[in-house]
């Protein structure tokens, strides 16, 4: 890695955050910083003693010259509303601004990856499987809205902080899940979005070290991601958790994630991370503490009221108490999850265990009619085939 | 920054409101305006006539088409607005949240220099 690449990776977000606070213009800050990195490519080596200071000075100079050359626009673009600067809060302000609820979710995701993650427009477009021009327009619109609507550049405080923090975590988790299980198409897992989300969560956890939900989200994503090499077999077919080769789990990542978990109020990510930790701690599938997992899902269902959580709880209860009890928890879920293939797929599996094979075949048929990705379809077909004489 | 709070509601409900309900609405908006003034945020605000009282002009080629009624026929109509001054969008949203109407659209006002 060249010195410029390394500086980009280490300092992009923080330098952009500082410049944005100074210039009160996200667009200008971003372009000037980009210029500074471009200048560094030809000016380095010799690498300056303090690369970020060199980059900041260069970017400030570029900003002044850009401002001088800018035609005087008839329409005044309002400057960013920047609160009294608090030392070290610039980067958090940047993150909270990119994830502001007045922006669409798509815009929040794109801006966060661009400004905080330092990703190029093309790279972000590829992550979300959209055209580069579409993504460029989305980012431009979002930046415009920040300045024109007066979205403030600050870290929220008081009772607002909790809700806004949840908003940031939702953006990061959305980036993560985008790669973890693609909804459609041939590739079931693309590891790049997940890795980006983990990097962003690491940054946030360092900035909010006392927030147990932030570290829980980081742990949750790392625990899932540690299993990436075991989720598909050599032919790209899905492998269930119990059948995964646990030797292919990244144990060092699991150990690090478990170390991040600390007691705190039972939040959304805290409980999900605790569930993932139970799975990851079992050396063999039969070591899994399904009773503990079923209890955690019950807590999660109380927190979220989500039908998908109920589905997962039913799976855990089936393991802990038997397939009949699990099946009972699935009763009536169709209304709440009409297009969800995992509901009939789960019911089929439980019916199979109960020896009710004809009903199981029927449920596999329903699941196959709803499933999106090729590997998942293949998995369901192979399951159904084992039931046929 | 200046923000417009655009208040939307159901015109049929307004037309069928009892005198008591109308008095209540006026009192609620009166209290809201006092709150805005107390925060130094109030610039102006008006209630608009019913959509049925609107006339819409559309400029075509060389002629002006005139139709009765509002620009868009919907269930929810623009029934009034406030113009407020707020530090940023967060403050504007906070002030809009206290507004006694079902639907409030927060729109930044474009300001031209010179």
Automatic annotation (TrEMBL), chain A:
InterPro entries: DUF6596 (IPR046531), RNA_pol_sigma70_r2 (IPR007627), RNA_pol_sigma70_r4_t2 (IPR013249), RNA_pol_sigma_r2 (IPR013325), RNA_pol_sigma_r3/r4-like (IPR013324), TPR-like_helical_dom_sf (IPR011990). This is RNA polymerase sigma-70 factor (ECF subfamily). PANTHER family: BLL6612 PROTEIN, BLL6612 PROTEIN-RELATED. GO terms for biological process: DNA-templated transcription initiation. Pfam families: DUF6596, Sigma70_r2, Sigma70_r4_2. Residues 164-262 form the DUF6596 domain. Residues 8-68 form the RNA polymerase sigma-70 region domain. The keyword Transcription regulation applies. Residues 95-146 form the RNA polymerase sigma factor 70 region 4 type domain. SUPFAM superfamilies: Sigma2 domain of RNA polymerase sigma factors, Sigma3 and sigma4 domains of RNA polymerase sigma factors, TPR-like. It comes from the Bacteria. Belongs to the sigma-70 factor family. ECF subfamily. The keyword Transcription applies. It comes from Nonomuraea endophytica. Keywords: Sigma factor, Transcription, Transcription regulation. One of its GO terms (molecular function) is DNA binding.
TrEMBL record, chain B:
Signal peptide: none annotated. Pfam families: YCII (PF03795). It comes from the Bacteria. Transmembrane segments: none annotated. Residues 1-111 form the YCII-related domain. Belongs to the YciI family. PANTHER family: BLL7171 PROTEIN, BLL7171 PROTEIN-RELATED. This is YCII-related domain-containing protein. The lineage of its organism: Bacteria, Bacillati, Actinomycetota, Actinomycetes, Streptosporangiales.
